Amino acid sequence: MSITKGMVVTDLDGTLLKRDRTISETDIETLNLLKEKSIIRVIATGRNIKKIEAVIRDISLFDYFIFSSGAGIMNCKSRKIELALNIPKDNVNSLMHFFIKKGVAFFLFHAIPQNHLFWYYKTGKINSEYNSYCEHNKGCMENLPDIKFTDKDNCQFLVIFRTADEFFKLKDEIENNFDDFQIIRASSPYGTDYIWMEVFNKKVSKGNAARYLCNHLDIDSRNTIGIGNDYNDLALLDFTSHSYITDNCPNELKGQYESAPANDENAFSFCISKNIN
Q1: CATH no. of 7-85+204-273
Q2: Domain regions of the chain by residue span
Q3: Which of 22, 52, 151, 186 is the most exposed place for a label (fewest CB within 10 A)?
Q4: pLDDT averages per 10-residue partition of the chain, 277 residues
Q5: Residue 25 neighbours by CB distance under 10 Å
């Protein structure tokens, strides 16, 4: 099978990036091959722009970044933000007060494009992963203002759980009380067993962002390849026509899509070779 006038969308951590957070020389060659064939190259990640640029030194390898799990899209050539889906301030305040009333510790990220900055709210129920996140992001965080109110839109909430049961319990409570949010599950980027809950504008997902790009660039969705490794990639893999999940994904996701090698074994190049001559 050979895809022309197409688009390849790959997750970053655990998919395109190896465990040492570099891109293999084989995969760099494949990215350059895609450019020669005028196939659009897209990263779709939970990272914000600042955190993408911390690991991607050569932005010219890509045409677009889908960042913050689909809340934003950046054109890599122009550096222009082409899509920004923040949570309206009224919805932010409603969910913030819901979390505070329930004693839920959370992080609240500023609006795109400043969503590398965030407020934190601590309770007596914080866990070691919450503390680790604070430690890794010292220069980007401030305590939630005493007024417990924002007059601006925000990008997302982040809540960290010890167990999947805690995640699903709060997810059900949010969905039973609100209609305005997209709740996305992600595995810990620190390699622990903690479960991350990202709460966004209800239109946010990697799949919706990929659909937006197809419409914007006049690309037939049948000519799309998606590659991922985690729960927050599922909406993307459900959208793309040729969808792969790497061998280092959680066990419960294996078999749901076409299989690819692990991220340390040139998974990206393997998937491309299956579809593009």
Answers
A1: 3.40.50.1000
A2: 7-85+204-273, 89-201
A3: 151
A4: 78 97 98 96 98 96 98 98 98 98 97 98 94 96 95 98 97 98 96 97 98 97 97 98 97 96 98 92
A5: 9
